[in-house]
Every structure is written in structure tokens, then in C-alpha cells.
Design a protein that fits this description.
Elements: H1 11-68, H2 70-91, H3 105-110
């Protein structure tokens, strides 16, 4: 004959104990996870967010200036491109790579 389980109806009491124990354990685990994620946020996420915010502010201010004074923008844009081109010529080819890595006539022969 099969064994009868929980004949007296005590499963509710056991279930209640199990649930309360799980609640306590989950609270402890949640605190640990929150503390670890807080450390990770401060170390990795916060500096990146600050960097993007400052870059966004800078871009917004440049855009506002361009809308307020279009003449300055039209004069400044070619000057900025010329400056960038000059810097590229000055510092652009400072490194010499092996002939395999350089994408010039020597490098194209190997590709």
C-alpha cells in the first residue's frame, strides 16, 4: 500500500517556513548584488556617462553657435578642415609598419 503524505495537513506550515526562508535568503543575495553592481557602476559606467554627457554638451553648444551666427560657421568650417589637414600631414605618417601591414604599393603586393 502506498504511503500517505501530509495526512494531518501540515504542508501549509512547511510551505510557509520555506517561503519565509527563501525571502530572507533572497534579501541577503539582493544586497550583495546591489553592492557589487554599485562598485561596477562607479568604476566603469559613471566615467563613460560623464564623457558622453560632456561630448553631447560640446556638440550642442557648437550647433547653437552655428544657428545663432551662420557667418562665423561658414568662415570657421574651412579653417577647421585646413587645420585638420595640416595636422594630418604633420603627424599622420609618423609610424612605419612592416611592409605587410602598410597599405601602400609594397603592402598591396602581399594582399
Amino acid at each position: 500500500m502506498a504511503k500517505k503524505i501530509n495526512v494531518d495537513g501540515n504542508f501549509k506550515k512547511k510551505l510557509g517556513k520555506t517561503v519565509s526562508k527563501a525571502k530572507k535568503q533572497s534579501k541577503v543575495i539582493a544586497k550583495d548584488v546591489a553592492a557589487k553592481s554599485k562598485l561596477g557602476y562607479g568604476r566603469y559606467v559613471a566615467p563613460t556617462v560623464g564623457l558622453f554627457k560632456s561630448a553631447g554638451k560640446l556638440a550642442t553648444n557648437v550647433g547653437k553657435l552655428a544657428l545663432r551666427a551662420p557667418g562665423i560657421s561658414l568662415i570657421g568650417l574651412p579653417l577647421a578642415f585646413t587645420g585638420a589637414k595640416a595636422l594630418g600631414k604633420k603627424y599622420g605618417r609618423g609610424y612605419n609598419y612592416s611592409s605587410v601591414r602598410q597599405f601602400d604599393k609594397k603592402g598591396r603586393k602581399f594582399i
